[in-house]
């Protein structure tokens, strides 16, 4: 890897001052479980690496009695593995990262900001996977793990975050700190589909950092995450779904959020599928119908039609798991 | 006088017992030093620039910028302008620098111009393979296949395949190499052949073979891919010379390891098989192809094991692909042949509505000389997996199946040779009573150190801890490469002969003092005594003290007098799986193996060999695949993220039974590293077909393929 300057600030103000104004100039280091591979593979070649781990205030996890949670961006993934009933979607997503090393080294903020696992991107063909003549490699290539939703643009990778679908299902907000101070975005709006290879997959400015994720009250929330995965040991899900439901006194669905992971360049909010559950008692049929609706607009690439089925099943099973 | 032949059951002190690996503690505690762990003072780090293109001509290489970089000590072009690259990852430039990042940066300072040429990297669809990539077909025929198919009651046709997989050694290929002076080289390689790996290097460097010293204590996996010094071994030794002889460490990065350091050839076949209504197999016809990269490959043995099917016709064609070349992979060609043969036969049984166990037993004479062994092993395995209780007709779903999860059982049988390799062994009895066994061998997974100690201790009537075993160095007596499951037979035979010869020499020395003759002595329980008379004895120590100052050194050899080891084994495996028909995910419930390997030296390490093979088998059946990109010609999963290996939670429950006793023991030890690797793909694929009612044609059995097979069948479980 190219030589770089290493900075280890102790406050968020210092950190954002050390970060560059354009992507690629600097990189923020948290757990390093992704950044180190990116550096070793020369996929990022920053002039400076800014270690955030020295900012102690960003590591706390607070769970007040109102059922909400304030999760510091530097909290380990392990720390959100056992947050209690309402957070089941989040805990299960964290548990799905079946490597104790990664759960303990990796951070919640890092999970949200990790880069796609698209094998063309990781082989050096850029975020939008083009060869030296500018031909897009994914449409005619091996796209078995690529997007089935939101794939009509040039970005066809899938968002790799395990926790993002759960945060979005739980209506979390992401707190961001930059030179202009603090701002907050809904978790669903934190992720963006880049239009060029020099953009990133999240709504941060190059000199901003995630500081905290705020999950509103989960009292009465039934949530779950279901991953379709080949291996029980560390593996990327082929498709995943997080759901969060509230039920009325007669066990009919009052509110529903359904978010798919590993199927689109961003965590995919399945609005129509969620709406289909409102007013219904959860049954195998209702869950299956929501699963069908969640992929109604899916569009398979040449080799990933099977993922449509997997995503649909993940939604169905997450719903059933949430109420079991 | 002590005799070479192995002691009979009941007279064995250590042989065949369940003994833990002597080097287990150093391995699990991390104290064991693998060659990868060797670091030398002033050591440099080697790196190799590899072609990103699968087929191209090198137009020019400019290494000047790399040479000028601070910390870079030597840069050497391996394949220069004009060279035609045949696969992505092929070596172009070697260099060494003071640390790894500097070496990596230096690689990126090298400028290469390529002229790209067309490539072929996938061959599963033969219709898309250009004629120029096809090698001449070979054919074979016995009997009258056309007539047999015409007269058959049932004929089944199918397509079966195994994609290319890689060895993926956890300790990657490589070495630490240095010039100890201007004429002598010391290497610490990761090798399956401690005694011979230096020979090619000596030839290349024009050094006498004796000037190269090889040392390796432990190896982290080879599977058939680590016999040679390899291009990088030679080039890095030259780079070391350019850098004043300084030690250079070069081990392949993971991507190179899986791209170019060996692969198992693919095998695909269209198969047609026939039987009579009563289940008698009458004919086999196969049209097969496969690729191991640019080199030629031989046909897997079709039909596998069932060689006495009366009418057989086979065709095989090797395909040239621009992919890193194949190397021997644990029982070359057998796992592929097993999948294709047992798959076709299990499909035939399903068509006949026959239980494949009954079907195999009915036809078992068609397997030839080991028919009785297979019969015994099939019955034993069936008992272990409770076949009768758990097997159902194809597609019905075994007991415990639900609407979405279907259970199935499958089986396979296999064979292998495993004849002993040549081996020299020094057995030394010291005047203080200590015993040493010295041999230029290695432990590829055999449990070599443990086996040597067991054989020597058994032969000398001593406890295991009385034996000091030294292996892993080419200055020790030469023993063969560990390949072809030849090690256990070779090393145990030479050690037996050496131990017995040493003991007889000791008998000669002490007989006069015991007022007897050497032929009346035996070594039992740490004593030298008159046969049958324990009152006339010396302790081992007292006896050895009579040697004065000169130890006894006996050179045991294989081959030698009396046959102590043999070849040819059979094995049976049965798999119990669950398939989620909504997701296509396959889970292992239980997997059983019954295996013979002649006389067992150590039951525990023998079982471990089988367990290891089964884990590797689950892995290649469900996960492993070298994914090659048609457009770029590159391997897309050259990492351990998408090149998946099974973990403990993925393998389910294993049970192993070793066939021992009469009929087995008298054959002497037979190699075991390979045979149990042959059946897993077939047994697991057959279990999946049994569970879901449709054949998933090609390994690995990934969710996309399982779902596609189900969809073809009509989406029904």
Helix-strand topology string of chain A? EHEHEEEHHHHHEEHEEEEEHHH
Quickly name the level 1 CATH class of the largest domain in chain B.
Answer: Alpha Beta
Distance between the termini of chain A: 49 Å
By secondary-structure content and strand pairing, the structural class of chain A works out as alpha+beta
Radius of gyration of chain A: 19 Å
CATH topology of the largest domain in chain B: the name is Aldehyde Oxidoreductase, domain 4
Give an overview of the whole structure.
The complex is a heterodimer of chains A (324) and B (717). Chain A has 324 residues and is of the alpha+beta class. Chain A has helices at residues 12-18, 35-40, 88-95, 100-105, 108-113, 119-125, 164-169, 187-190, 271-277, 284-294, 306-323, and strands at 5-7, 26-29, 48-51, 61-62, 69-72, 173-178, 181-186, 209-215, 221-228, 239-247, 253-261, 268-269. With 717 residues, chain B is α+β, with helices and mostly antiparallel strands. In chain B, the strands form seven sheets. In chain B, strands 3-5-1-13-10-11-12 form a seven-stranded mixed sheet, with helices on both faces. A six-stranded mixed sheet of chain B has the order 7-17-16-15-8-29, sandwiched between helices. Chain B has a four-stranded mixed sheet with strand order 18-26-27-28, with helices on both faces. The model of chain B has no long low-confidence stretch (mean pLDDT 97). Chain B folds into three domains: 35-117 and 173-251, Aldehyde Oxidoreductase, domain 3; 270-278 and 333-417 and 566-713, Aldehyde Oxidoreductase, domain 4; 420-558, Aldehyde oxidase/xanthine dehydrogenase, molybdopterin binding domain (Aldehyde Oxidoreductase, domain 4, 2-Layer Sandwich). Classes of the chains: A alpha+beta (324), B alpha+beta (717). Chains A and B meet through helix 6 and helix 11 of A and helix 3 and helix 17 of B.
């Amino acid at each position: 890897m190219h030589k770089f300057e290493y900075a280890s600030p102790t406050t968020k103000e210092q950190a954002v001052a050390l970060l560059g104004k354009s992507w690629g100039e600097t990189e923020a280091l948290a757990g390093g479980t992704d950044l180190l591979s990116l550096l070793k593979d020369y996929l990022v070649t920053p002039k400076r690496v800014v270690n955030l781990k020295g900012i102690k205030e960003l590591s706390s996890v607070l769970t007040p009695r109102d059922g909400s949670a304030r999760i510091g961006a530097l909290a380990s993934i392990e720390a959100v593995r056992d947050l209690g009933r309402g957070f089941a979607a989040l805990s299960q997503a964290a548990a799905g990262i079946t490597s104790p090393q990664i759960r303990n080294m990796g951070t919640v903020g890092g999970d949200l900001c990790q880069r796609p696992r698209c094998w063309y991107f990781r082989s050096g063909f850029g975020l939008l996977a083009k060869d030296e003549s500018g031909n897009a490699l994914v449409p005619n290539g091996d796209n078995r793990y690529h997007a089935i939703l939101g794939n009509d643009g040039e970005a066809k990778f899938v968002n790799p975050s395990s926790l993002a679908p759960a945060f979005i299902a739980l209506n979390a907000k992401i707190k961001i700190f930059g030179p202009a101070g603090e701002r907050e975005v809904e978790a669903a709006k934190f992720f963006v589909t880049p239009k060029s290879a020099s953009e990133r997959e999240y709504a941060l400015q190059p000199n901003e950092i995630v500081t905290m994720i705020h999950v509103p009250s989960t009292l009465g929330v039934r949530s779950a995450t279901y991953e379709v995965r080949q291996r029980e040991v560390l593996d990327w899900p082929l498709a995943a779904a997080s759901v969060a439901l509230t039920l009325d006194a007669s066990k009919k669905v009052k509110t529903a959020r359904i978010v798919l992971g590993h199927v689109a360049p961003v965590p995919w909010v399945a609005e129509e599928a969620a709406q289909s559950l409102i007013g219904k008692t959860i049954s195998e049929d209702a869950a299956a119908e929501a699963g069908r609706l969640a992929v109604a607009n899916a569009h398979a690439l040449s080799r990933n039609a099977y993922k449509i089925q997997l995503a649909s099943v993940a939604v169905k099973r997450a719903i059933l798991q949430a109420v079991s | 006088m002590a005799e070479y032949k192995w002691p009979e059951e009941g007279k064995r002190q250590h042989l065949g017992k369940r003994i833990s690996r002597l080097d287990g503690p150093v391995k699990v505690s991390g104290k064991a030093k693998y060659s990868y762990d060797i670091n030398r003072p002033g050591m440099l780090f080697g790196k190799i620039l590899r072609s990103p293109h699968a087929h191209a001509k090198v137009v020019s290489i400019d290494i000047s910028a790399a040479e000028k970089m601070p910390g870079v000590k030597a840069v050497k072009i391996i394949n220069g302008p004009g060279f035609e690259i045949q696969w992505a990852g092929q070596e172009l430039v070697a260099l060494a620098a003071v640390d790894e990042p500097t070496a990596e940066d230096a690689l990126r300072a090298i400028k290469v111009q390529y002229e790209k040429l067309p490539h072929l990297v996938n061959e599963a669809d033969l219709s898309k393979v250009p004629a120029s990539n096809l090698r001449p077909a070979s054919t074979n025929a016995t009997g009258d296949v056309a007539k047999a198919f015409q007269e058959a009651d049932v004929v089944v046709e199918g397509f079966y395949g195994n994609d290319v997989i890689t060895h993926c050694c956890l300790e990657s290929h490589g070495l630490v190499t240095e010039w100890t002076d201007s004429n002598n080289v010391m290497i610490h390689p990761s090798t399956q052949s401690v005694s011979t790996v230096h020979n090619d290097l000596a030839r290349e460097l024009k050094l006498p073979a004796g000037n190269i010293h090889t040392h390796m204590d432990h190896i982290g996996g080879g599977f058939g891919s680590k016999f040679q010094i390899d291009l990088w071994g030679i080039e890095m030794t030259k780079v070391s010379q350019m850098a004043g002889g300084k030690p250079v460490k070069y081990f392949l990065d993971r991507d190179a390891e899986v791209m170019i350091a060996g692969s198992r050839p693919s095998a695909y076949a269209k198969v047609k098989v026939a039987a009579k209504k009563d289940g008698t197999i009458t004919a086999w016809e196969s049209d097969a192809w496969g690729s191991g990269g640019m080199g030629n490959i031989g046909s897997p043995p079709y039909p596998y094991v069932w060689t006495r099917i009366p009418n057989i016709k086979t065709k095989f064609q090797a395909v040239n692909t621009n992919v890193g070349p194949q190397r021997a992979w644990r029982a070359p060609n057998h796992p592929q042949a097993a999948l294709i043969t047992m798959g076709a036969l299990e499909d035939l049984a399903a068509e006949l509505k026959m239980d494949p166990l009954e079907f195999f037993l009915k036809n078992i004479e068609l397997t030839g000389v080991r028919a009785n062994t297979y019969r015994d092993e099939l019955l034993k395995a069936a008992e272990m997996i409770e076949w009768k209780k758990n097997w159902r007709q194809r597609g019905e779903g075994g007991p415990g199946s639900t609407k979405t999860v279907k259970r199935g059982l499958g089986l396979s049988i296999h064979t292998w040779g495993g004849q002993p390799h040549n081996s020299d062994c020094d057995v030394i009895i010291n005047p203080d009573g200590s015993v040493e066994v010295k041999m230029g061998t290695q432990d590829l997974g055999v449990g070599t150190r443990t086996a040597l100690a067991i054989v020597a201790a058994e032969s000398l009537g001593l406890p295991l801890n009385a034996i000091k075993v030294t292996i892993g160095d080419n200055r020790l007596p030469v023993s063969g490469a560990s390949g072809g499951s030849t090690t256990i037979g070779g090393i145990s035979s030479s050690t037996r002969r050496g131990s017995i010869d040493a003991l007889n020499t000791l008998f000669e020395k002490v007989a006069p003092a015991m007022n007897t003759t050497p032929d009346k002595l035996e070594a039992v329980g740490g004593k030298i005594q008159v046969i049958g008379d324990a009152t006339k004895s010396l302790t081992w120590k007292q006896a050895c003290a009579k040697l004065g100052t000169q130890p006894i050194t006996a050179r045991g050899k294989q081959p030698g007098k009396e046959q102590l080891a043999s070849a040819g084994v059979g094995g049976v495996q049965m798999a119990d799986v669950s398939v989620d028909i909504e997701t296509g995910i396959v889970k292992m419930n239980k997997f059983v193996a019954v295996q013979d390997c002649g006389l067992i030296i150590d039951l525990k390490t023998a079982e471990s060999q089988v367990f290891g093979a089964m884990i590797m088998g689950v892995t290649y059946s469900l996960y492993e695949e070298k994914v090659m990109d048609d457009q770029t010609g590159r391997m897309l999963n050259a990492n351990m993220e998408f090149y998946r290996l099974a973990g403990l939670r993925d393998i389910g429950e294993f049970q192993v039974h070793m066939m021992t006793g009469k009929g087995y023991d008298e054959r002497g030890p037979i190699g075991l590293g390979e045979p149990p690797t042959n059946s897993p793909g077939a047994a697991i694929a057959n279990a999946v077909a049994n569970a879901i009612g449709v054949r998933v044609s090609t390994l690995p059995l990934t969710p996309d393929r399982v779902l596609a097979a189900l969809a073809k069948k009509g989406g029904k479980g």
